[in-house]
Structure formats: C-alpha cells, structure tokens
C-alpha cells in the first residue's frame, strides 16, 4: 500500500512536477498533496489566512512550513478554501442544487441569477 503523505525530503526532491499522491480532486483532476511534516500550529495558521481570504500569504506560509514548491502550495491552498466537512453546501434558491460558494449569485445548474434582488 502506497502512503499518501509526503515527508519534507520528498517534497523538496519533487520540486518540478505536480504531486503524484494524495486525495484526487474530481473537479480539476489534481492530486492534493498531504504534508507529513506540517505541524498542527502551522496548518492552523495557514487555514486562518485562507479563511481571511489571504491566499497569497497562506501559500507563502505553507511553502515556508513544508518546503513545497509554489505549485504544490497553490494546489493545497486552493483545495482547502471553502472546505468545511461539517457544513452542507448552500442550495440554489430556485432548483436546490448546490452552489459553488455560499456567496454565489448564479446557479451553474439552472443558470438563474439573483445579482439584482
């Protein structure tokens, strides 16, 4: 069985290409790296920056904490924003299908929009 997480040495050695292990994103087809050496405190700090919409700072903090490339840090941050496993997606008020974000003003399924209330 192949482990999903990357040690710091593996992260540094894999500088060039995209991650080959980790959870698979069905939407974009990317593998999301799992950093074995990412401490709980560092992860919490990065997630706090993500929640404050400071994605560039979050990417920088993640790179400093893990030694990852810009590509890997960006993949991790972009796949961890708006992710709350306990929260159900916001449904479209017209068709009930899940919206991409809680702030969405147009449904990707029924195409209705409510920009101007």
Walk me through the topology:
Elements: E1 5-6, H1 8-13, E2 34-35, H2 40-51, H3 55-66, H4 70-80
Number of domains: 2
Give the number of helices. Answer: 4
The shape is elongated
Helical residues, percent: 25-40%
Quote the beta fraction. Answer: under 5%
Sketch the topology as an H/E string, one letter per element. EHEHHH
Mean residue pLDDT: 87
Distance separating the two termini? 53 Å
Rg, Å, rounded: 17 Å
The structure class reads mainly alpha
Question: Strand sequence of the main sheet, in spatial order?
Answer: 1-2
Quaternary class:
single chain
Largest β-sheet summary:
2 strands, parallel
Q: Total number of β-strand segments? A: 2
**Which regions have little confidence, pLDDT < 50, spanning 5+ residues?**
none
Word description of this protein:
- The structure is a single chain.
- The protein has two domains: 5-80, no CATH class; 88-117, no CATH class.
- Helices cover 35% and strands 3% of the residues.
- It has four helices and two strands.
- The longest helix has 12 residues, at 40-51.
- The radius of gyration is 17 Å and the shape is elongated.
- The termini are far apart.
- 19% of the residues are buried.
């Amino acid at each position: 069985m192949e482990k999903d997480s990357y040690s710091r040495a593996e992260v540094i050695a894999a500088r060039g290409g995209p991650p080959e292990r980790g959870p698979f994103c069905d939407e974009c087809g990317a593998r999301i790296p799992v950093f074995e050496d990412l401490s709980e405190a560092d992860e919490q700090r990065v997630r706090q920056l993500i929640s404050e919409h400071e994605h560039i700072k979050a990417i920088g903090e993640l790179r400093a904490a893990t030694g990852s490339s810009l590509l890997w840090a960006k993949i991790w941050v972009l796949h961890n924003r708006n992710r709350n496993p306990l929260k159900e997606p916001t449904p479209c008020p017209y068709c009930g299908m899940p919206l991409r974000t809680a702030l969405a003003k147009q449904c990707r399924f029924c195409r209705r929009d409510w920009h101007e209330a």
